[in-house]
Amino acid sequence: MANLEETFVGLPGWGKALALVGVLALLGGGYYSLVYGSISSDLTSADEKQKQLQDEIRDAERREKQYLDLTQELANREIADRQNRRILPENAEIAAFLQDLNRVAELSGLTIRLVEPRPEVRQELYSKIPVVLALTGRFHQMGKFFYNVSKLDRAISLENIRMTQPKLLPSGEMIIDVDVRATTYRRPSPKPPKKSKKSKRK
Prior knowledge:
Blueprint: H1 2-10, H2 13-87, H3 94-108, E1 111-117, E2 121-122, E3 127-137, H4 139-150, E4 156-163, E5 167-168, E6 174-186
Antiparallel strand pairs: 1-3, 2-3, 3-6, 4-6, 5-6
Helix pairs in contact: 3-4
């Protein structure tokens, strides 16, 4: 150490300056390699992890959107299926059908003189369930009845409408008798799967 100090002291000014520059360069190189290099490596690693996390977040958001879309689509299909089952149920549900007709007739102010269910008529894609009705009431009450029937959830068609000659009551009111066939529909029952025939043993 003493020899180094003596050597340094004996150097001219420009030599001391070069020595100091060399020492500072060594210190700077050491600092860069030990400190800055380590920090730079950590920053690069952190940046890569951040990009990976961002990719994972985007993927998770995409999956969440797909899940929400599928859930909404399933809910819409369930709602549509319930509506379709009300419009075209699998069972005849004659009692409920007659109850709806009777309720609508009463709300319309009509008198039901006859309710006569007819045999079910099987079609290729659906079955028809007709009921013959004989109604009595004023003209605007008949119109109200037909309108309210069209607003029921179940599919119903009113056919073969026959109207009698209007009758004038002593009170001045005019009433009519109407015969009509109210037909509702149901979807066919699913066919049971065919049983496979077992091969006969020879």
